[in-house]
């Protein structure tokens, strides 16, 4: 499963590519540029980009044709599910961050601002 927040560069690249798909830069059925070109555009080693592409293949976002390259899936419902899963992860991360600030001051009533 793709993680919305991940420190591994190849996962970050996979998310960046997903955003391009979600925003219509690469449409369903579109052929992606070769790995080396994508790596050059992102300023990373081709092996790192290869791992990012493999993550998206494993998630069935990209389909690899052995002779012609990689294509974005045409399964729109699958893309919507992945997008919704990522948005839910992001929502949970932010909710956890908001909750980490606590609410213990509320039990003391109104707090004077002239302290």
Question: Topology, please?
Answer:
Layout (H helix, E strand, L loop, with lengths): L8 H14 L12 H8 L3 H13 L3 E4 L3 E4 L3 H24 L16
Antiparallel strand pairs: 1-2
Helix pairs in contact: 1-3, 2-3
Explain what you see.
The chain is mainly alpha-helical and 115 residues long. The chain has one domain: Arc Repressor Mutant, subunit A (Orthogonal Bundle). It is built from 4 helices and 2 strands; from the N terminus they run αααββα. It has helices spanning 9-22, 35-42, 46-58, 76-99; strands at residues 62-65, 69-72. The chain has a two-stranded antiparallel ribbon with strand order 1-2. α1 crosses α3 (46-58). The longest helix is centred in the C-terminal third of the chain and has 24 residues, at 76-99. The radius of gyration is 20 Å and the shape is elongated. The termini are far apart. The model has no long low-confidence stretch (mean pLDDT 90). This is GntR family transcriptional regulator.
């Amino acid at each position: 499963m793709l993680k919305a927040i991940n420190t591994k560069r190849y996962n970050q690249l996979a998310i960046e590519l997903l955003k391009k798909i979600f925003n219509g830069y690469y449409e369903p059925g579109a052929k992606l540029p070769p790995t080396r070109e994508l790596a050059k555009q992102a300023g990373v080693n081709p092996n790192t980009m290869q791992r990012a592409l493999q993550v998206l293949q494993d998630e069935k976002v990209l389909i690899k044709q052995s002779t012609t390259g990689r294509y974005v899936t045409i399964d729109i419902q699958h893309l919507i599910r992945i997008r919704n899963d990522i948005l839910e992860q992001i929502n949970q991360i932010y909710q956890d961050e908001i909750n980490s600030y606590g609410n213990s001051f509320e039990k003391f009533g109104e707090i004077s601002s002239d302290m």
